[in-house]
Amino acid sequence: MDILLQIWGGSSYLLNKICFSRAERSATPEGNKAWRLRSWGIFLAGLPAWVAVFGMEHNWIAATVEAGGAPAMLIGFIIALRGHGNEPKWLDYLARFAVVCGLAASLYDFGGITTPTQVYELCVAAGFLIGTYLSAKDNVNGYFGFMLGNLSCAVLMGSQGYYILMGQQLVSLVFVADAYRTRKKAGRR
User: How far is Cα 175 from Cα 180, in angstroms, rounded to an integer?
Assistant: First the structure.
């Protein structure tokens, strides 16, 4: 079962980063919108697999932050569909609440910050939330968050024997870096 989850989650998140890269390379606003809609939709499709993998390993910070990232992903999808200013504000509050719950669950389960995996999870959480939130708001600096999240997640997944997910995270870095470089080259913030 974990192989299926790795393929499902890994391929979805990799396709998400490929679509972000394609959106940045799109020559037209319509093309950019279409690639962004695909990116956010694929991101949401892979979310259940990642939450399941993190939950199986008791990576509660990462699991709840991933689940809590759904509102930020929805914000990104809504902004890509309708434009800035048309996203529901309550989704922001829901995402922030999930982060607090994840940290509390991990602290309770492990009796504090006692393992290296929790440190990796905190880096995954920070990168994921920064990347998702800023990218949803169409801010180029969201790509730095994704880079931190991808690297931290690769280390976490590798340390737990999820080598497909580790590889996917490392390959995703190429597309995140391409999206960032392409956006900066075009002079867009």
Answer: 9
25-39, 63-77, 138-152, 175-189: which has the minimum mean pLDDT? 63-77
- Cβ(76)–Cβ(40) below 8 Å: yes
Q: State the average pLDDT over residues 125-129.
A: 82
Tokens at residue 56, please?
């199986």
Read off the pLDDT of residues 17-32 as tens digits, 9 standing for 90 and up. Answer: 999 999 999 989 999 8
Per-residue confidence (pLDDT) for residue 152, from 0 to 100? 94
pTM over the 0.90 mark: no
Neighbour-count burial of 111, counting CB atoms closer than 10 A to its CB (0-12 exposed, 13-18 middle, 19+ buried): exposed
Task: Report how far apart, in Å, the C-alpha atoms of 179 and of each of 44, 69, 77, 115 are.
Answer: 19, 21, 18, 33
Single out the residue of 29, 33, 47 nearest to residue 77, CA to CA. Answer: 33
128: left (phi over 0), alpha (psi -120 to 50) or beta: alpha
**Which of 50, 25, 40, 62 is CA-nearest to residue 135?**
40
Please tell me the number of Cα atoms within 13 Å of 77 on its side-chain side.
Answer: 16
User: What contacts 173, CB < 8 A, 6 or more positions away?
Assistant: 147, 150, 151
